[in-house]
Automatic annotation (TrEMBL):
Transmembrane segments: none annotated. This is Large ribosomal subunit protein mL54. It comes from Papaver somniferum (Opium poppy). Residues 30-50 are annotated as: Disordered. It is found in: Mitochondrion. Signal peptide: none annotated. GO terms for molecular function: structural constituent of ribosome.
Length: 132
């Protein structure tokens, strides 16, 4: 009986080792390349761009989504529509909108207040329901 248990333990240990070896994560580059000490080597440094500064400042790289064609050129600010400059403007937070008088809010801010307030109420209701 003891002999039978030791055989099963031995096979179990070998099976776990085999699973550990098979399940071990390796990388192709790391398996072939030898590492010399800690840290990255000279090959890990980012490569310097071969593009000139003039091309970098006048072209949107990876802006072309078509197979044929070229990357779009950066135009002067006057060439773009007015609304494009307002996309990056900061919008007021819910707490700031609640402090203002509702009757004097512009339509866009009022619409944002309603949306954010509804979202906050839904989150609050969900958290109350989750606790019960």
């Amino acid at each position: 009986m003891a002999m039978n248990c030791s055989r099963s333990l031995r096979s179990l240990i070998l099976t776990k080792e085999a699973i550990g070896i098979v399940g071990q994560r390796t990388f192709a580059a790391g398996a072939k390349a030898k590492k010399s000490g800690k840290g990255g080597g000279a090959g890990d440094a980012p490569k310097a761009s071969s593009l000139s500064k003039e091309i970098k400042s006048t072209t949107v790289f990876c802006g072309n989504i078509l197979k044929e064609g070229t990357d779009p050129k950066i135009l002067a600010d006057s060439e773009y529509p007015d609304w494009l400059g307002h996309l990056l403007d900061k919008k007021p937070a819910l707490s700031e909108l609640r402090r203002k008088n509702i009757e004097t809010l512009p339509y866009d801010d009022l619409k944002r207040l309603v949306k954010l307030d509804n979202r906050a109420r839904i989150k609050e209701n969900n958290s109350v329901k989750a606790k019960h």
